[in-house]
Amino acid sequence: MGARIPVDEHAAFVRSLLAGLGARPTERVALADALGRITASPVESPIALPPFRNSQMDGFAVRSADVMDAPVSLPVVGEIAAAPGVPAPLEPGTAVRIMTGAPVPDGADAVVPVEDTEEVGGDVTGVLILHPRAVGEYVREAGSDLEAGSDVLPAGLRLASRHLAAAAASGLAEVLVRERVRVAVVSTGSELVPLGTPLGQGEIPDANGVALAAAVRAAGAVVVHGGRVRDDVDRLRAELDTAREAGAELVITSGGVSKGAFEVVRELLEPAGGWVGSVAMQPGGPQATGAYRGVPVIGFPGNPVSAQLSFELFVAPSLRAIAGLPPAATERLELAEPLTSVAGRRQFLRGRRTDDGRAGVVGGPGSHLVAALAASDLLIVVPEDVTELDAGAVVDTVLL
Amino acid sequence: MGARIPVDEHAAFVRSLLAGLGARPTERVALADALGRITASPVESPIALPPFRNSQMDGFAVRSADVMDAPVSLPVVGEIAAAPGVPAPLEPGTAVRIMTGAPVPDGADAVVPVEDTEEVGGDVTGVLILHPRAVGEYVREAGSDLEAGSDVLPAGLRLASRHLAAAAASGLAEVLVRERVRVAVVSTGSELVPLGTPLGQGEIPDANGVALAAAVRAAGAVVVHGGRVRDDVDRLRAELDTAREAGAELVITSGGVSKGAFEVVRELLEPAGGWVGSVAMQPGGPQATGAYRGVPVIGFPGNPVSAQLSFELFVAPSLRAIAGLPPAATERLELAEPLTSVAGRRQFLRGRRTDDGRAGVVGGPGSHLVAALAASDLLIVVPEDVTELDAGAVVDTVLL
């Protein structure tokens, strides 16, 4: 039967088992697919930003020397749009109409915004420049944002749209990112049937298949295989072979870790040196760790409440860190009501923030209360040595 | 040229233009695809949770009346697994071995955990029950979590894995959710070339195409069309026709809204009663709103910094609210350095939280500084009537 091992000890062991996943292989992905991915190396811009000297305003490109005694009238010799091509050099004593972003011609060293000018002649054949302009005014120099060959993004960055904007402005079409962790989710239990199947006597829907897969995705990893097997260790082995072929680097199972007679995860892992036992927590006491043909296997209890909590407590922190996601938020809140707990186990009661900002209990401690879990938005953590708490006591909570 | 309109006025106008998107059509999606979607109606469970009376522990199902004088020895008449089928009723004076989650047989009204028993007889033909058990102990009653026909999830809920667990445990395979807002992103500008194309003179990569699409997705909407057109209003019309055919409910354009001579978004929207003008902000002053064949069009300036900021300020709040995402976080921080700003415009300076928790400026006010935007993690908001701030002044910031 074995003693219950402390929550923190089990968490540390799972963390060590998953540490090997942290050294990620890399892959090139199109920028269009890179939102939320993590850069695997610094991203170098092959070009300067901006790539060429251009105008910051709609207006007129001039030589500052020509307008130092403004107001002064200059003939307008042409128009430069933001379009491909090289504009002709600007002759001294002339101005050229220029659009925002258009290349500033050789010879010009300042731009006069259109609102600081007046038209001269009916069809804008000349322009009256109202004020002097210093060299460089309203001119964006090539490389003034970034020099060619410099890093536009650092390594280890979780890509948001503004980062993609900078990489794309650098002319890149792809970026080297860390591969996401490839996870298989396998439900065990002869009582399980696929979602949407009418339930026979003693049957229940395989809720963990869809819910653990969603939890894996929410933690920034990718589900490469999902399966469901009855309580038959050969079937489970075959399922895990399939998961390995699908490239799984981590297998998460639910069910089959308890003290009963048909515990397939126990049957699989224990002969191979894995550990199946009890963690001093409620819900989620029965837990398993091990490996199958070199792939780490983390086994959770079969009921969906325990499975979801176990994932959040033991696996999500490692996966979120690898994916560059922040850890789950925690908060110390006052209890809205008194509660009792079991000595020697860390209790994770489902709760909900009340209107006055306290933590209320939702549905009690039973690990089968999955509707109550859905109605919760936090977990109330009751330490192992605490069996009673009064309303108003301050507790640690984990925000869901 | 027109007067600059206040930021808040433009924001309110865009919000009103997008308000019609809030009444979402609905669609049924598989639970496996429902992570992050919003329930369109309360989700009713067709079954009770749990669906049948079952055991909370591995142990022995008994009649509490038979163990009230424990310790007492009972013959073990069988074994009930968590598996399909109906167990035989329990005869008085007997016990049956039972697994966690297995159906509790008629006649039994309590479960004795295996750790509170001792074996009697070599091959477990009998069991010694060590303590009395009350009626209902370690028995999960059918419906004790949720009654059949009750709502397992409310309407308007953003689905996390624990919600999917509850819906799946209810035997549901699909859920009715709000459709995501369908957005088209169209870049305008003859100077633009596709990402990864070697740049000719005067050409720049179309950064907004990929970056605005990513921003749309990050705001919980879906990009149904992306396009890029040169400065030719007929091409733009054709592109928007394609966007409409793709089902776009909202078109976001970049470029073509300035005071220059080749402003295609202006050419498209103004004759149709749209507005193209200046908002009293920096960067991102030139803005446009209107409609094309009944589809709202929001026009941003062409440079990626202005486009990203404009999206965050004017469009993201509406899209995020529709998608059930929280608004961007704001924080009041001390400035790490003095700064100056332009009178009459609200300045959104790119900044970064310093190690000592203050707001430092990254890269200056130029709207072309896209690499600096990528290096930022907040926007420093300088009000319209402020032209100088000292280090240590407290400013509003928007966290990116």
Helix/strand layout:
The structure is a homodimer of 400-residue chains.
Chain A: H1 7-18, E1 26-30, E2 43-44, E3 54-55, E4 59-62, E5 72-80, E6 95-98, E7 110-113, E8 117-120, E9 126-129, E10 139-140, E11 151-153, H2 161-169, E12 174-178, E13 182-188, E14 192-193, E15 204-205, H3 207-218, E16 222-229, H4 233-245, E17 250-254, H5 264-269, E18 275-278, E19 281-282, E20 286-292, E21 295-300, H6 304-322, E22 330-334, E23 339-340, E24 346-353, E25 359-361, H7 370-374, E26 378-382, E27 388-389, E28 394-399
Helix pairs in contact in A: 1-6, 3-6
Structural summary, described in words:
The structure is a homodimer. The first copy, chain A, is an alpha+beta fold and about 400 residues long. The first copy, chain A, is built from 7 helices and 28 strands. Chain A has 4 domains: about 5-25 and about 180-320, Molybdenum Cofactor Biosythetic Enzyme, Chain A, CATH 3.40.980; about 25-50 and about 160-180, Molybdopterin biosynthesis moea protein, domain 2; about 55-140, Molybdopterin biosynthesis moea protein, domain 3 (Molybdopterin biosynthesis moeA protein, domain 3), CATH 2.170.190; about 330-400, Beta-clip. In chain A, the strands form 8 sheets. In chain A, strands 7-4-6-5-9-8 form a 6-stranded mixed sheet, with no helix packed on it. Chain A has a 6-stranded mixed sheet with strand order 16-13-17-21-20-18, with helices on both faces. The mean pLDDT of chain A is about 95. The radius of gyration of chain A is 32 Å and the shape is elongated. The longest helix of chain A has 19 residues, at about 305-320. Chains A, B: It catalyses: adenylyl-molybdopterin + molybdate = Mo-molybdopterin + AMP + H(+). Chains A, B: Keywords: Magnesium, Metal-binding, Molybdenum, Molybdenum cofactor biosynthesis, Transferase. Chains A, B: It is an enzyme of class 2 (transferase). Chains A, B: It holds the Pfam family MoCF_biosynth.
